[in-house]
From TrEMBL:
Name of a matching Pfam family: SpoIIAA-like
Alphabetical list of SUPFAM superfamilies matching this protein: SpoIIaa-like
InterPro entries (UniProt xref): SpoIIAA-like, SpoIIAA-like_sf, STAS_dom_sf
Native organism taxonomy: Bacteria, Pseudomonadati, Bacteroidota, Cytophagia, Cytophagales
Name listed for the protein in its UniProt record: SpoIIAA-like
Length: 121
């Protein structure tokens, strides 16, 4: 499950992942992000807050997630990962080879630091 909070004034979104990601979650995320990008041109960044990654509901959810990344990595400037999960902690280094967005990891409680980084030029 993804809870989306979009800060339209500063141009970033916070995704709180609290349970397995569903197709509905990705479709909702896509709709919200696409509406913002259509109006403003680019989303400065995403902050993904996930203590322990819960996975996806099913394989279809996983493929929807990959499609979101493929369709949006060029129009989202930065992606910050707030996590204590060791597997997710290594994700920015690995994914950085495949996406245009700048990626960075933060400790789970470092919301202020993540927002500051997302909003910096």
């Amino acid at each position: 499950m993804i809870n989306l909070s979009l800060n339209k004034n500063k141009g970033y979104a916070i995704l709180l992942v609290t349970g397995p990601i569903s197709v509905f979650d990705i479709e909702n995320l896509t709709t919200e992000v696409d509406q913002y990008i259509e109006e403003f041109g680019q989303l400065s960044g995403l902050i993904i807050k996930v203590e322990q990654f819960p996975g996806w509901d099913n394989l279809d959810s996983f493929f929807h997630h990959l499609k979101f990344i493929k369709d949006h990595h060029k129009v989202i400037g930065k992606v910050g990962f707030m996590t204590e999960n060791n597997l997710i902690s290594s994700f920015p280094g690995l994914a950085g080879h495949f996406v245009k967005a700048e990626l960075k990891r933060f400790d789970y409680g470092q919301m202020d630091e993540a927002v500051e980084w997302i909003c910096s030029n």
